[in-house]
Fold this protein.
Amino acid sequence: MNHQREGHETPRSFWSSRYAIGLLVIGGIAAYFLLTEHLAHVVGALPFLLLLACPLMHVFMHGGHGHHRGRSHSESKSNSESGKPGEPS
C-alpha cells in the first residue's frame, strides 16, 4: 500500500528559493559598503581579533586535553599518585 499522495512534491528549502538569492545579494552589497566606508575601523580591530583568536583556538582545537584517551580513570589516578606517567603500578 502506497501512503504517499501522488502529485504532491516536497517543498523546496528556503536557501534554494529566489528570496534567499536576493537576500544573499543584498547582504553582499551591504557588507561591501560597510567595509569600504568603515575600513579604518576594521583594520584598527584586526590586532584585537588576532588576540581573541588565540584563546578561541586553544579552547576549540585542543579537543580532548585531560580526557586520557584509552586509559581508565583508576589507571590514570594510580599513575598520577606514583609520579611516573605511563608506567603501570
